[in-house]
Specification:
With about 80 residues, the chain is mainly alpha-helical. The protein has helices spanning about 5-65, 65-75. Keywords: Membrane, Transmembrane, Transmembrane helix.
Length: about 80
């Protein structure tokens, strides 16, 4: 194997590992962004669940016979 061939092979290996390292870094950045989105999505789901519970309580209060009777008395 000649010296020129060895230099070319070393350069190709170096460039190849450099490209693979950059791809790995981009993969890690993407994964980090994805985890951040998933955490935010879970927070929103929890907030929606809490709001749904509050709506259920308000619906129970409004549909309660005592509440409607009080409103009818107040209107008289």
């Amino acid at each position: 194997m000649s010296g020129t061939t060895m230099v070319v092979i070393i350069v190709l290996i170096s460039v190849g590992f450099g490209v693979m390292y950059d791809m790995y870094k981009k993969h890690l950045e993407f994964k980090e962004k994805t985890l951040g989105v998933n955490e935010k999505e879970q927070e929103l789901k929890d907030e929606i669940a809490a709001l749904n519970k509050r709506i259920e309580v308000l619906e129970k209060i409004v549909t309660d016979d005592g509440y409607q009777l009080k409103n009818e008395i107040d209107q008289l």
